[in-house]
## 1
Amino acid sequence: MKAETRHRIGLVRSRLATLPKGPQWIAFLPAIALAAFWLGGEGALLVVAILMPILFMLAAETEDPTSPAQREIAPADDVTPAGEAVSLADHALLRAHAANLSTACIVIEAEGLDQIMRQHGDRAAESLRVVLHQRLTAMLRPDDQVLRVGDRRFMVLMAPALRAGLEHLLQLAARLQRGLEEPTEIDGATHYVAASIGFVSSQRLSGAASGSSMIEAAQTALSEALSNGPSAIRAWSESLRAARDARASLLADVGHALTSGQIRPWFQPQVCTSTGRISGVEALARWIHPERGIVPPGQFLRLLEEAHQMDRLSEVMLEQSLRALCDWDRAGLDIPRVSINFSSAELRNPNLVERIRWELDRFGLGCDRLGLEVLETVIADSPDGVLARNIVQLGQLGCHVDLDDFGTGHASITALRRFKVHRLKIDRSFVTRIDLDEEQRRMLAAVLSMADRLELETLAEGVETTGEHALLAQLGCDHVQGFAIARPMPAERMIEWSRKHQETIEDARNLGRSGG
């Protein structure tokens, strides 16, 4: 049954719901029967007698949300097609305009459903979607429409109302968010989701706005919320339109940027705290746009993901990083290793191990010259499958596995052993202000002590002051990386920087000898 038809049936039932029901009808039965007989005789009385049970049934259905007819109005397991959603949005705008009222579109993303599906299966995820749909319906007015428009996305089309301004919609969005984020127990397990919300009021749209433009505006607001999430709420505005247009322009350029060499690795040095020597470099993707200059990674990495170009980015980063390593070898630099970040999607590529082995052979480099940076959350969420096999096999080849952002996930000690992790890369949240904050210092010391007992190397990232650098060395952290050492730089600048860095180390040693 089409959603619009279901909605109209719902309106009829809601009107019936306003009529007296149940015991209230009984009080009117004598008057109704007498009036029917007086006006139409026995025939009219017979018709009333037949119609009364039918009216009782319809009224009862409007009261019972579990009745089959009520469930047919908006089944939670139906994904509304995009075209149908646009048609319903057009209808909502027309109704609001005809009544000189306002409407609104609210789009909600239930973050965490993907993880629940991976860990507990499709049945648990679908049961949770049904619960979320029911909660939304319960928190809204009978005339408001709740649509499921994706695996983790819902849309609300508000019925015409006097109050659909910014303040009212913000309060409504916050109430919906609280309701959706309540814990849900399914099959004995408690599940949580984070609800990010974007919305637009018809008051903020032009008079000629269509349902498509209203939905697009709400989705733009949702995209902004997701980039500031989790659990963020954003309203659509003209400034978001400009940001959306700029984003669309970047999305059109991003494919060409990969093939034309605009996106390439820059390298940030990592140094040993005991010797000061370069112990490796991390390859970081940078987009040098011919007109916009440097595009922040937070912008274009999401675009590459939407354009399904992450595998291509991985290929570019791997090839150019290994080529840079060969160039540094020829220049006489001692840079033991280059580390590359791989997303969970890339790590699920069944051909990843063979591709990396082939690239290393092509450049004549040993497997120990390549580091694989894997987020702790990826290891914690993916104990089995292709992703796990790829990481284990690369470790067995001799590639170094760095556990990135350590301390932000929940990887177990067993996982550290199983995935053959060589080094813990301590998240900068543990490093910031350790030279000034005693509690921060104790927490970091505990992490370093654990790593030492597990015979794992440690690297602190985000080191931004000489005080942090010095204290990390004193606490026994093996390697450091951050602005206090060097900012990311193109491959050609690494040659000059490395030589100057080596000269600084030699000067310090000579000064130490002369002082002795």
## 2
Amino acid sequence: MKKILFTSFAFCLISLTFAQKTTKAIKVTYQRSSNGKIIPNQDPLFLFASKDLSLITTDKIIQQKANFPFEQTFVAFDSKTISQLAHLKAGKLILNHDAEALGKQKFEFTDETKKILNFTCKKAITTVNSNKIEIWYTNELGLKGGPGVLGQDLGLVLETIRNGNSSLTATKIENLKTIPTILTLPKVPEVDQLTYKDLLWKSRFVNIPVFNKEQIHFVADAKSNDSIFRYASGTVIVRKVKFPEIKKGSSIYVDVTQQSNGDAYDRTGSVFMIPMDKKSSFLDGLKNGVNTLPVYENGNGKKYQGVVATEDYTPLLELMRFFTPFGVKHFNYLQLKNKVWQDSVFYRQDISLLQPKLSNQEVYIGMFIGNYDAGGHKASLNISIHEGEDNNPKGDFILPLFNTLNVMEMAGQDYATMFDNEKGLEMTFEVPEGYKNFKLSYTTTGHGGWENGDEFLQKKNTILIDGKEVFAFTPWRTDCGSYRLSNPASGNFGSGLSSSDLSRSNWCPGTTTNPNLIDLGNLSPGKHTIRVSIPLGKPEGTSSSAWNVSGFLVGER
């Protein structure tokens, strides 16, 4: 019996020695699991490792089926260098070397062991960004590597566990008699780490630059050029923009960066699209004068130009409403103790709902900042598209209904004072067949910047569909003091407050105003009416209140 056991042991020893002599490299397959359950439809993770080099990659990358961008990681054990290889797009590769990261890894070693694929593994623990990482590694194969950069120099990592519930576990080890060609660090352009991260991040989405530090100011002779059109004495800028096909389910964001270029006051700003689907458009008003726009009347004797949809006209489709702070950057010399003023204000808003209006379209995109200052403001605008999973490019039904913001204020468009009678803003719209689960995207801000003006008074907004109330709320912001560091020119009061601290009707100096998404249910095909009712404050002397409301209808297929 003892002889048989000795013979078996000797055979295993000979086999192991033979394997070590013939194995030039190994291929390890890893499987992801969460809370003890295998994650379905995963792209298997592979580790290729030789004595000198390891490579972390995936099955889809090897099969050339991976979506761009994607990364591969090499570790050179002699120099302890981690090299990140990014495939930004077909034929566009960049490389970054880090000769310090591997040596900086710190671990707590334990006496725990366990078997993985019949190899005895030791346990090491580390922490990354408040995440506890357990690393199980073996030294029995004489090679190093792992499914991530952590623990690559400890031995062969066969399992990593994050926070006790997310695991990467080796399921198969293959001995390779030759070193595969894939286990070779390619010669591609090298960049520093920050550049690498920046280029990789930017390759993950489509960015459409619309305006770059354009001046929006009040001058009599505002001049357009071949690409940027200036209207309303320079307070409105417009550009034609071509959008690619955008998959349904994609995320779309609009970004604005703004600085004062001389104007000290908080101003209303808006980013908008000019619909061109009807006989006349807002662009006609910009080109030919506000009086060429269709007029809305509610019986108070005033005429409001271009604010509601008609059979022949579609109003502006608002993408973002923002408010400039008091003089950010230009007035940063106005020092206060313990106040470090911001250099600019960055506004960012999700406009994914508008995918069907932008996908594969060439449209006019505009920006407005109301001001009467020759220096005015400087602003940049970008729109980014982050691809979704739905391959269907057709989106929901979008119908712009109204927009009372007087974008052409500096060219004579009247303020939105139509809410001074019971009718308020009322219009008719038509719902097509084949849609359901309708919603109203509704943006509202109150204005009238004196003590009794609606900027500083809480006023209930009520929305009625076909005479029935469907939504009512009182728009109010109480967090304006959070943005004090963007308001160097804000007036200070004897009470110790700044003007920018004061609560307002759904806006603050230096912020965006979020739209309300109001559930309307299933509207029957055909014509309907919508009414917006707000108890507008009465004028005092030459001062009057106004409410800038915009809304568009969304229907699901």
## 3
Amino acid sequence: MAAELAALQAKYAQEAQRRIRPEGTAQFEELQNSGVDRLRHLADDVWADHAALDAAPPALRDGDRVKFLIAGAGMGGIVAAVRLVQAGFPADSIRLVETAGGVGGTWYWNRFPGLHCDCEAYIYMPLLEELGFVPSHKYAPGVEIRNYLAQMLEKYGLADKVLFRARVERLTWDDAGRVWKAGITARRGPRGEEEHRLAAEAQFALLTAGLLHKPQVPKLGGVGLHGFGGALLHTARWDYGVTGGTCEEPFPTLDKLRGKRVGIIGTGATAVQATPCLADYAGELFVFQRTPSAVYQRNQRATDPDEWATEIAPRPGWQSERLLNFASVTARCAPPGTKDMVNDLWTQQSAYSALTGDPEYALTPPEKVPELIGRFLAMDEANRSALRAYTAEVVRDRDTAEKLTPWYPVWCKRPTFSDTYLQTFNRPNVHLVDTDGKGVEAATEHGLLVGGTEYPLDVLVLSTGYTSPAYDGGDPSVRAGVEVVGRGGRTLSAKWAEQGATTLHGVATSGFPNLFWLGAAQTGVSPNQSYVLETEGTHIAHIIAEAHRRSGGLDKAGLAIEVQPEAEEAWSMRCAAGAPRFAVQMICTPSYINNEGHFTDPNATQEDLLKKARQSPWSAGLPSYIEELERWRAEGSLSGIKFTVA
């Protein structure tokens, strides 16, 4: 067995090496920052109703002062705002600043055909119990989630508290006034082209940028993607003018693709959902693959009212219980005999805890990493075998089935789930173009070049993902695109560059009073990102509300809440101590998870390595992280937090 696992590791390393490019993430360019108009405009907000937004009174005006300023109105920003309202702060004291023309974050921007959540909707959609909302399906369609997030704002009186088409560019702490001074760029006009700046002040500031929110495209040779003569679109900004259909349907009628030769670059989670929809209408569909995804059955079904009432939501607190159950099962820390409430293919991926953390291997020393990799490979063995058999059973052509079968362990790429994707390759109009790990070589005026063969296309869909979450070094200001200047003129980025990630509980840092954020560094990780956001938002609201109560009331002005240096250093070093167990990613194929295979810098110094280690998640998994926060709150002293009143 040991020899077999060693051979498997060697194969994985060899396959991964074939796909690693020396330029790393530089092989891609962000759409918003492209120097080519055609590519840059692929990131335009095509969903905004500019006339209605221009006519509406702005939620924030130049010179306004508010208690809470939240940068971002995606799921994280919405949940954070709602938790503040639930903690007792009035909705009118809160303002959200959002770059888009509507709320929802990733669910606003992404409207491609076939879009659904890939975690069960009953745990993915936050505050279902509070709103009394029943998702239509076990995995809800994107349009339903987008509308639901807007309903959350309505429910808590926050719908008119969002400044749309605006970006917080800079936050500067004013020690004398005990406020954050915000520089904001806002847009108006028929296409949002009129730019103006405004200044506002806020007692508290929150950064809520998502993990995957900057769409990217590969830099191809030949004429470049912009030189392709046909229609071009990115899945992060679907163009229904090209395909037909509307974004108000889960499975729109893409009738403009009939008879067309359509190509799609990418086979990740987005492409797995969109590809079957394209295949239904395209004359011919060419799927360009660098690395296959692990595609498991979704087993989608409509929500059954009887099952909802008796099994899913039978008693108060049902969603909190179900959330923790899912997190515990996937982190392999559920007590023996625990019922698997969600019971889908996610909860059967025990080896995925290699990526998210678990209590058993939380503090693995560096010298034990090879042994740890072997243990997780052994843990994944039955899963690998079952997936290989399932793929071979579904896909009729043996060669195509082999090319669609992942060769890497489950933790290396986010698993995907579909009842139709693999089946699509049995259709005569669908062609898999496997690039043998090399990717597409070049674009031409008429199509794409792979292995010296040109594939003529009329329409090209780019399902090429987003900038890696690893690019920011755990710095929340970089992720949010906000320059944050704290006490003494020191920027948050300067602190991160000098010390590495430095937080208490992953949500705040010293030298930056009344600043909080939702992030991934030094926090728990789960396949269900919405639970992470809810956990962080709840914790932040508790800290702020409790400090107010102890200082004289929720309307207290002049209150400054700040992390103490010794507390954040202790937390940061505990996170760094858990970093070696995440070295299991060393055998993985390049992806956004491991910074396109550049997991470590071969020229890094010991100081560099320690800084990188400090940005690790909580290595014992999300349930353990939650326990730490609950223990800290129950202790009652707000240990590590200093709060003063002017």
